[in-house]
Design goal:
The chain is α+β, with helices and mostly antiparallel strands and 249 residues long. It is 50% helix and 17% strand. It folds into 2 domains: 6-131, PAS domain (Beta-Lactamase); 142-248, Arc Repressor Mutant, subunit A (Orthogonal Bundle). It contains 14 helices and 5 strands. Strands 2-1-5-4-3 form a 5-stranded antiparallel beta sheet. The termini are far apart.
Length: 249
């Protein structure tokens, strides 16, 4: 139904505020939901969001990304919010890696929308982030399963010299077809997905082992320490060393 429909508008005006957020999103434990004002101050989070930070929902009201996350990561979250506010356009299905409490990471698909006031000015943003892990938690949605065999192969051979043409050949399709399918179902390219998969494995090893950054890089197929560090920063927005220090602390 179009939200501009008079029946929809009349109905929502008669609703007690907060019912949808407080009811529906609390019933989805794997979906994080939040609302922020234009300054990036949190005005609502559901329980799943709070649990990621090992806090209670009410404790997060008034907080910002800068007060909850490492500085560089908070900066990227804030830049996405500002882009949504500036353009008044939603951001759909951005594939992200998020660190779990106590170590480990989650693959999440994040979407954000602008929230408009009665004068049509943007008052803030709202977002949802649903878990989309490989090999753990809820299964990949049906469209993603179409390339699940290939994804399994990527995760089982992270230390190998995987190239996109080889992946396309093994999938029985052209490189362009493989690119289109990854963009459609995962919002990224095969090469970018491979980088994220390697960085996800690196995050696990940084927190669960005593291996040096160089040893982890080598095990994941990186010939040079510097190239691994650049790839890690591009995904996690901090260096491997800083990631280990921050989350172990």
């Amino acid at each position: 139904m179009n939200p501009s429909d008079s029946r929809f508008s009349d109905f929502t005006r008669r609703l007690q505020p907060g019912q949808i957020a407080l009811g529906l999103f609390e019933a989805l434990p794997d979906v994080m939901f939040w609302m922020k004002d234009v300054a990036g101050v949190i005005v609502f989070v559901n329980r799943a969001y709070a649990q990621l930070l090992q806090r209670k929902p009410e404790e997060l009201i008034g907080e910002t990304d800068e007060s909850l996350f490492p500085p560089t990561m908070a900066q990227f979250f804030r830049e996405d919010d500002e882009a949504v506010i500036r353009s008044s356009e939603p951001l759909h299905n951005k594939l992200e890696l998020v660190t779990r409490p106590g170590g480990g990471i989650e693959w999440r698909m994040t979407s954000k929308i602008p929230l408009f006031g009665k004068n049509q000015h943007v008052l803030g943003t709202a977002g949802v982030s649903r878990r989309l892990e490989h090999g753990e938690g809820p299964p990949l949605p049906t469209p993603h399963r179409a390339i699940s065999v290939l994804i399994d192969q990527i995760h089982q051979n992270l230390g190998a010299d995987l190239k996109v043409p080889l992946l396309a050949k093994q999938a029985g399709m052209s490189v362009s077809s493989l690119e289109r399918r990854f963009r459609k179902y995962l919002g990224t390219t095969p090469r970018q997905y491979l980088v994220r998969a390697r960085i996800a494995a690196a995050c696990e090893q940084l927190l669960s082992t005593t291996l040096s950054v160089g040893q982890i890089a080598s095990a994941l197929g990186y010939q040079e320490h510097a190239s691994f560090t650049r790839a890690f920063i591009s995904v996690m927005h901090m260096s491997p060393k800083d990631y280990r220090a921050f989350y172990r602390e």
